[in-house]
Amino acid sequence: MPFQQYALEPLPRAQVETGRALKSLIEETVVSDNKSLTLTDTVAGKTTQLPILRGSLGSPCLDISKVPKDLGYFTYDSGFTATASCKSAVAYIDGDAGVLLYRGYPIEQLAKHSTFTEVAYLLINGELPTTTQLDAFDHTVTHHTMMHEAFKSFMQGFRHDAHPMAMLCGMLGSLAAFYHDDLNLHDPEQRRMAAIRLLAKVPTIAAACYRHSIGWPGRYPRNNLNYVDRFLHMMFEVPSEPLQLNPVAAKALDLLFILHADHEQNASTSTVRLVGSTGANPYACVAAGVAALWGPAHGGANEAVLKMLEEIGRPEDVATAIDRAKDKNSGFRLMGFGHRVYKNYDPRAAIIREMTHKVLAELGVNDPMLEVALRLEQAALKDDYFVSRKLYPNVDFYSGLIYKALNIPTEMFTVMFAIARTAGWVAHWLEQQVDPEAKIGRPRQIYTGAVARDYVALDQR
Ligand code: ACO
Q1: Does pLDDT of 247 surpass 80?
Q2: How far apart are CA 115 and CA 109, in angstroms?
Q3: Residue 105: its H or E element
Q4: pTM of the prediction?
């Protein structure tokens, strides 16, 4: 089927407004005052002051930390939909406007002009690097991509059909066993090196997981290549012939890595921070982040999207899938649709949408799943169920189609996400380590179990 038949329809109006929203964000005045709200329990006659905290952008927050002491109540917020868990300068999202900033830079600008390693530098260090700084950073990352040879025997312990996310989680966690002399979290240089090692080694481990699953011999990282090219070589090069790398494929992967690099306090980053709050080592923290990312409601969605598109199979079956997604009893949701924070078109999805067309056209891939995806998107964007709930395509709706075009198998999709998100995870972990307000994360609960009762002997039950 000719490619032109899948012509992209314009995005919904809300997305077009994003540029304006961005301008108003840039112009927003930074306010820092100590005003507070007063909360009064009129029955008990108790009062507390809730200080209003303001960041550089976004909604103000009420500091509720004194409520239990002053009023005798805890606060309840299942899923943390209304609660800020920390102060952070790494990324900012305006979910209503569809805006994402890394260290203040709009994702659209980074996607257009930057590279993944430059973005990783930005996330970790807070500023864009000079040429010298970027060269030095690339050099350091490149020279920490090798794994200890003992990893080979560790890898052999996994069954050939182990899921690569299971392997990635185990292998990353095991890094602590190799660098136990280098885990003084009070030493800034050791913290920095741990972050670099994670960023450098995650593609090596990811490619090794893939090769193990298909029975290919391992491939060492090549220092003469950049981050993405090196990863693609480790993934696809066979000993018998050199790999001819397609620059379009490499560029597309670099872009996907940029778009997935960070997303403020999402489930996996919050997991990294929660584990980090205990003083656990960074390898354990990032392994925990990988475990959280694996879930189908989070990073596992890209794998689930492709499975869903294949299950739908034909464009003419899209209407039935939409009906099933609207039926609460079907247990079926449109994977790649909806987002906890974005109540507008995910800005990353808008970029990937364009990229998917370009990549598939330039690689000459005629994937019928693209037409299913486009039909599904258009049908959902016109359907009142999705419109009224502000359910738009998220970053993962299209990313799987690009991965598929790059010959990356479905089980590896979430691993690709993890490679990119490692940049964000280590940036947050480093930030947390020097946060003077950081405390061990310890949420409270509303207990709904049995009230205190006496033990009943076994023969009397
Ligand atoms: N398909 C159909 N209905 C949906 C979908 C969907 N994908 N997502 C949400 N809804 C409906 C819910 O049934 C609910 O309807 P109701 O108000 O009638 O009860 C309403 O929309 C709100 O849904 P919630 O689950 O409360 O929204 P929440 O913000 O908690 O969930 C989430 C967000 C988990 C992403 C959800 O939209 C979802 O499951 N999407 C599919 C999975 C997915 O794509 N995840 C990737 C997220 S992006 C990322 O992690 C990189």
Answers
A1: yes
A2: 11
A3: strand 105-106
A4: 0.89
